[in-house]
Amino acid sequence: MAAPLTATAINCSLSSRGRKSSTDAMLAVLAEHFAAHDVSVADPIRIAAHSIKWGVKSDEGEGDDWPRIREQILAADILIFGTPIWMGQASSVAKLVMERMDAFLSETDDKGRMPSYSKVAVAAIVGNEDGAHNVASQIFQALNDVGWTIPAVAACYWVGEAMGSVDFKDLDHRPRKVNETAKMVAANAAHLARLLKEAPYPG
């Protein structure tokens, strides 16, 4: 039997509160498929609901909630990075998270490994406009720069009609391709995370 793994999901929606967002809905799709691979996914962290200061350090001082969220992210084997598409790009909240992770570059161990080394990251992306590939490229390049490992088929996304009124969370039926992609994302990420947990990067 495969060793159990853990995943932290973050929701980089612009909204700090209210009903479940489409990003939550896509994160739930991935959590469902991760469960089939003995990966326990904690409740998503709604980033905008916390007081996270702008900056590029792991702790920006009094009132900064990032150190606690950073700890939750790094305690897991897998990061599920969820973001909506705004103006064809990852949300400003997503960019805030990526900028805060820039601190990893100077937080290496005695073998030159950042705290995210040997941990896997995947993405959950939703929007009512084109841009999913652009958002994935932004996220994955940034995350790889700060030490995360990106598996094959690492992004699950849904893009609705441009300027349309139907959101992913409002769909009557889950699209077949979304389900198939989520299944592959979960399988590949779990497989890679287990390999890296047993044999971390040597540095």
Question: How would you describe what is shown here?
Answer:
The chain is 34% helix and 18% strand. It is an alpha/beta fold. The protein has one domain (5-198): 3-Layer(aba) Sandwich (Rossmann fold), CATH 3.40.50.360. Strands 1, 2, 3, 4, 5, 6 and 7 form a seven-stranded mixed sheet that branches. Helix 1 (22-35) links the parallel strand 1 and strand 2 (39-41). The protein is globular and about 50 Å long. The chain starts with a strand and ends in a 5-residue tail after the last helix. 41% of the residues are buried.
Helix content: 25-40%
Rounded to the nearest angstrom, the radius of gyration is 16 Å
Span between termini: 29 Å
Order of helices and strands: EHEEHEEHEHEH
Give the class from helix and strand content and strand pairing.
alpha/beta
Count of individual helical segments: 5
**Approximate shape:** globular
Q: What is the CATH topology?
A: Rossmann fold
Biggest β-sheet: count, sense, barrel?
A: 7 strands, mixed
CATH architecture name = 3-Layer(aba) Sandwich
When the domains are counted, the total is 1
Using DSSP, what is the number of strands?
Answer: 7
Question: DSSP strand (E) fraction?
Answer: 15-25%
CATH 4th-level superfamily: Flavodoxin domain
Highest-level CATH class: Alpha Beta
Low-confidence sequence ranges: none
**What is the mean pLDDT?**
95
